Amino acid sequence: MSNSKGFKDVFSYNSWVHAVSGASGAVVAMSAFYPLDTVRSRLQLEDPEKRKNLSTLDVLKQLVIEEGFGTLYRGLVPVLESLCISNFVYFYTFHSLKALRSAGKGQNALRDLILGSVAGVVNVLTTTPCWVVNTRLKMKGIKASGGQDNAPYSNLFEGLLYVAQTEGVAGLWAGTIPSLVLVINPALQFMMYEGIKRRLVKVYGDLPAVGYFAVGAVAKAFATVLTYPLQLVQTKLRHGDRNASLPPNAGTIEMLLFLVKKHGVIGLFRGLEAKLLQTVLTAALMFTAYEKIAKFVTSLLMRQINGK
Fold this sequence. Notes:
Blueprint (H helix, E strand, L loop, with lengths): L1 H9 L2 H33 L10 H12 L8 H27 L6 H30 L17 H12 L8 H6 L2 H21 L4 H31 L12 H12 L8 H36 L1
Helix pairs in contact: 2-4, 2-11, 4-5, 5-6, 5-8, 8-9, 9-11
């Protein structure tokens, strides 16, 4: 009987609603703040001397002047495709596990952290190829520091085939190790978000949109600052960024040590300002849209059920 209930919890309307809402919210938020993600990618991958001491706004202006307004949205479509898939997998897994583990038990920060980590591992193992391709599409035609343009394709499907043919299937999972370590990022984010939201809802009841926006911003800022050096390494490995001083198969530790040796500890946080702006605003808007979409879809389902 319990096995049957567990199966229903995993394949429930509730998990589906959260997954669709999370994916939709992420697409809305990324579309709104994508230029900031472009700046973050450039600062992480280009020669540090190229845009030294420039603020995020200065880099945005410089890119528009040098390459045109369209460059701010280069690679948007495959990023949205990957983000939609990634967030659907993450939200579905997280809320299915939450339903399984919550029967008769209240949620707490530790459970949220564990469930978020498991959902993150599932997400990384299934969606890393998409992120490898769209990282390269975003930098298409732009030489990274120590690297070259390596995206002779124009969409996600072509990119997946090209990388598999030229670098082997393993090339599609470049940067998986830091990505697996980085599952702590969304796990910390969800732990903070769920914890703060539970407390606020308990005191004030249902939150307004600005409440969800603020909670999402705080949760994402906390997770981003703690894990940023690994995010930098992840981006470089996904892009295939290789310096002459590094072996072709350089891994996470070698890349971290190389960056510290060449640029100092501060080099591990290059692009953090743009990343914080982009990821905090995107996460805040994503959680706001997610909560509102989830409530709307749930209300529609309840009307259909009650109307039968």
